[in-house]
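Now for a chain:

_____
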Amino acid sequence: MKHLYWLAKKINSNRAAATAMAVFCLIAAVFMTASLNRAKASDSLQTELQEENSNAENIISDETEKDTKNSVAESAELLTEEHKAQLRGSTSGGHGKDVFLVEPSDAQFYEGGYAYDITVEPIEVEISYSKPADVKTTQETEPEIATPAEDAISYETSADKVFTEDIADQEKPTKTSTPGEEGTIGSDTATLAYQDDFIELEIIDLPEETEDISLSELDEKELAERQKDLEIIQKSMGDEESQSEALKQAKLFWGETEKPKKKGYNLNISGTKTFDLKRSDISGDVGHFISKYPDAHPGSKIDQSLHLEINGNITENATVHAVLDDTETEDRRFTVDINTPKWHLVLGDFQFKIDNAELSVFPKETRGILAHGRFTKNYEAMYIFAQSKGVSRREQFRGAGQQQEYRLQGSPVLQNSEKITIDGRPITRGIDYLIDYDDGLIKFLPKVLPIEITSWIVVEYELTKDAMPFKRNMYGTRQIYKKDENRKLALTWLKEVDDTSGKNKTDSDTASSTSQITPMSHDLLFGDFHWKLSEQFSLEGEIAKSKFEADKKNLPSAPETKKAYAGRIELTGESSRMKADLSHKRSEAGFKAIGREKGIIEVGERGPMDDVRLTNMRLTFKLSNFWSIFAEGEKTETNLDENPAESSVDLELRNAGIIFEREKHKERFEIRKGKQIDRELSATKQGDLTKNTAAAVYDRTFGAVKTQAKYDLVEYVDAINIASGSKVIQTFANASSRKAGNFSWTASVSEIRVDDGFVSEGPRSETNNWTLDVSYDPSRKFSARGEFQFRREDDFYNNSRNDSAIIDSNIKYEPTQDIKTQLKYKIENTSKITRDPSLDPVDYIVPDSLPTSEKEKTEVINRFENPVEKITASFMTDYRITDRISAYVDLRRREINDKHTKLNISEIDRQTYELKFTPLKNIMVIAEYDKGYSINNDSKSRLDDTGKLLQINSELKNGYKLELSYEIYEEDDIYASQNDKTVKSKILDLQRALSPKLTVGMALQHDNISSATPSKEFEKRVFATYTPANFNKRYKLFANHTDIENVQKKEDGSRYEYGLSFSQFIGADTMLDGEIKRVHSDKTALGDAYSATVINAKMVITF
């Protein structure tokens, strides 16, 4: 088939054959392209051609001839049947499909001196197509095609089968066809659509007539051309020059032309710039003015924000990526990233970190300049000058089951600085948790819950620079020698130094507080290396010296400058059957790293500590293709300087296990056992705690179902205090399956048993979880997702049981275009500060079995809050009953209950019903009923409200619009009747379009307000809107006047406003909105008189 690409060029006159062969030639061309990279197989291919010629009679035998005739039909049938469901499922913008019928046709082609017949039976062919969003089709410049890999060209057939062939030292296709541009196959029979990583053939025209082509019609000249093409392909197996010629022929076949790439500047700049101006000159009662115009700002206020992105080439060899975002979002930052052959520059906000600097540098948010230079093949350098954006903090605490919210001890938190792990597994903001940076509040989302008491939560973050008494600058350099990718050395010097003058010197409070704190200076010099000694052994290490001056001013009472060292060395050996790691780490007391305030080496469950020596060894040995064993040992010592004020910790860790794994069956079984001995000695405390662990994990895939079973045992044995020992057994089973496109599910069950000896028979506590997550999406009409979780917590010591059910479901049903429904129901457990003083705080640590100090207990009690259950439900349906009648229903409910006190904390319920009726073509009647209530039992308040609306919209004749409304709104405060309020409104609104440019209107509104201070208001509104012919601007003159009658005090007053509002597009990318108005109000029940001039303006520039 690789020799058939030229056939399409020769059957141009046969439209039926062209149609039948379109799919066939597509597949043939792919195989032809694949053959271009098989230079190494030239001898064998030549032999194969000779064998084909020698066995020619066998090739054209009846049985082989029958297979050859039906090859195209079989390929097309495979295309449609195997991929029809997938292709029809594509409904996103820019994508689609074509379904057509290939008419019966016959064709012949010539190969190796023999003639072959192809008969195509009637078949239905479905081919997907898409229009890439990032391809610009201008006449001046034709964009380039990005291939999936360097020096690679890939073609994708409509059956989504991708064939990629590397073509060394060849240019990639440089022509992009616009949608509808015809290729060179056949006669108006195909379109070539180029994508970023594939080229796709789309059939656009089907010939209705067929003609037969026979071998006898081919003259000698045509046969000579075909033989020449065949010789080119055969020669391409031998040398690169012939490969280039073959590739050129292939490009000509696909209609590609060689065009030089455009060099120089190629920048894509996009973004928005927003200016917002608010100004109010007020005289009189400011409070009364604010109650009427809450968005107004007394005086002047200017807000501006910018979001800018720049991508592209600034020179022929330099690229830039820049992001500037100063909007009030969590991702606010300014970063410019420039790449050249020699330099990589980062300017603005960036996270500073250094690979292979495990002890010296931890990730840190900074603002400044980072430059990385590549000067020669072996020499690189890095330079940094930046300012710290925050102070590093680290917190470590246990999980608490279904509790979602945890409050950090420090706030506000620097945006994007947090790194959160659960049992060492990093989690992602927005997917696994949410964070309130201002309050330092972390909320874990239901998908990661529950977080059991056996799990450790570690949060590393930075406090904002507001918590820093001084500005802290950092600068330094890193010099790198790289012999190759596996052997390199580096020397780094970094310096952190505080500004000698404190911040906010005009603030007396801040000045007095910072007077007790002195600026610091911190120098860090370290070297690190990674060196592959041989194919089996590699060595890496790090040695660092820290010099820390707590008082840069050198006051007499300043502490002594601390100098300390830290280092590590790791040796790795690896062969086909064995891998061994040996490491040694040491940090002296007083050593300070960049990006962490205290401690750099993790010591068991205690977290990072100072003055530590740690030695670790791990060995993995492969016994056979299926079996392997591993062993690990670790020894850690602290307080090597024997400081009497510090505790000395001696920790030993031993783990071993065996693994059985079969990749063919996707099966893995692991058993491991370990022991940790933690001994602590100080002047006031002595401890000897042993932690025994054992686990077994089994993973297996059965067809489309993935399963996992796990058993985990943790046992604490306290040799000093026997009563503090405990044992935790955790079992877990999980199964999941994902069917193609429609249905997927995940089911899991787990149990946690805690036994600490406080209960004579049975465990201290037992926690069970059952979870089922189901997703069903059979079509666009119906989709459903549900997560169901049931949790039972039994505390046998306190003789209590706590059951909780979590349901999170979302169902969408759209049987027709006239009916749309959606149902959401969710029950979630959260935390809310609603403590009942009668409850014992110790009950918040259930079970209290794992070892914690009294200080940690206090922190846990202060951090944990009462569990709260929140139920949220909503139902929405939009039903177009007939062409004249449609209905809309929206039901929403939310309630919060305290699970300890069983009391309802708050409850909100709202129901909305709307009916639209169009009795005549130009008349619409809208009836709406809205009812709801809000209860807060914590503050003893309840507010019921009801809204009723009847509205008639009518176009009396061309240019006239009339709107009549009658609305009743009632508020009923159950606990404070003086807040009850009823407003009855009658509104008449009339508009007339005098011309396409000018529209005028008037409105009358009468409000009858029944409240503690009843009143009547009669408002008159007039306006005129002018829109020029080009429709890029709009001006509106308006005036409103309201007469206010105080029924109770028999006092009359008035309120008015008049002004000009405008909206204008300046060019195609800039929009300007503004308003200037004069407002005035007499003295009313809400306050005294006021007058004000209000100016609002907003400009949005899009580029």
In short: The first strand starts at residue 95 and ends at 102. The chain has eleven helices and 55 strands.
